[in-house]
Design a protein that fits this description.
2 copies of one chain form a homodimer. Chain A contains 9 helices and 4 strands. The first copy, chain A, is of the alpha+beta class. Chain A has a 4-stranded mixed beta sheet, covered by helices on one side. In chain A, helix 1 (about 15-25) packs across helix 6, helix 5 packs across helix 8 (about 200-210) and helix 6 (about 170-185) packs across helix 8 (about 200-210). Chain A is globular, with a radius of gyration of 18 Å.
Amino acid sequence: MSRNYELFYWPMIPGRGEYVRLALEHAGAAYVDVARKPPEEGGGIKNLVAFLGAAEAPLPFAPPVLVDGEVRLGQTAAILDYLGPRLGLTPDSATGRSTALMHQLTVSDLVSEAHDTHHPVGTGLYYEDQKAEALLRARSFRDTRLPKFAAYFERVLEGTGDWLDAGFMSYADLSLFQTLEGIAYAFPNTWARVSSDTPALRAHRNRVAALPSLAPYFASDRRLPFNEHGLFRHYPELDPA
Amino acid sequence: MSRNYELFYWPMIPGRGEYVRLALEHAGAAYVDVARKPPEEGGGIKNLVAFLGAAEAPLPFAPPVLVDGEVRLGQTAAILDYLGPRLGLTPDSATGRSTALMHQLTVSDLVSEAHDTHHPVGTGLYYEDQKAEALLRARSFRDTRLPKFAAYFERVLEGTGDWLDAGFMSYADLSLFQTLEGIAYAFPNTWARVSSDTPALRAHRNRVAALPSLAPYFASDRRLPFNEHGLFRHYPELDPA
């Protein structure tokens, strides 16, 4: 890798930026996590907001944004689709590329639904101001939506084996892992129940967790922990025993 | 086009299937809208559900599903990314492909947020059972989210001109159009306000509406009207004057 990728994302949460980080880290790609640098070196939220407001075409709607020389790209799945062939994380065929993207988008749908459990009314409001609605939405997520997604991925893995696309680990596998990590953090009781019915999914999560390529990253402080400002938030009232 | 594409989607709504239809129709591609055929020819909801339940790998999570010979693919944006180069709807460069996908995904985000105005608590419940929450979510959509998306696309178009990617109409342009049609149907009062501030977006919508390539389709009964079973629903209480 002769030049650095630049990732622009909120510095205080794993969030959607983490999906890009996992792909870059797995491949050992050289990249700069720009907003995590000190403010005087261009990092921090203020500089990030300035970058987003001043960005030239094609404008990104929101972070994460990847910059690769002249290329600047927003939207997590578009970034991963772009990086995949460059990082060896997309099967080398037109169909493989589409299948990886399909799986990534289903993971993205699950991520959005997990997020909306704590923000069912609006992203502009605080959780505390939509708690009653969050209780309802979280119940629907626990009882219906999460089991549906989990059963789906279980069935995919029963058909393909170790990875979502038979015989090839793609960026979508890393993304599925990260999402299950987030759900296990936010909904430990629910996840214990759901995962007991989905052994292939449980094994998949363990398989990614044990990748030697990611061990140095997981042991580093580059790996941000989940917290209550991100996509996946642990509010005990949303995850009854 | 030597063979037919097959599209599998709910037959009674435009929904997410319409994004695929617009691309196919614009290109004059031969395709079969399978679920809209008579049940005895494989159409109808019952056959669609059977197809989804029996589908071989790679399994789709939900419709729309595109079948192209051996290829079967779910997720609207993955289908469009696959079809784009085949239908002349993706700029012929790696960056163009990524940019079109990025724009499609931002349109998809807007679609999901428009949908969630009438289903903020859960897709498994009726609108009538989540009307109080829908009133709150719709207000956030009208006052904050829709203006934010509209201002974003306005700014993109101010930079690029006629189309989201300068000088090239991609599938994402068709998708943006369809989404604005849906929003104008569901939220006519809100859209009148928002579009008065976004002249480039208004012009973009008119530009797609006037495409000669789509005129036969718009005049045909293949073009399904919006209704209160789909993504974009007109509930007057969610769109006050």
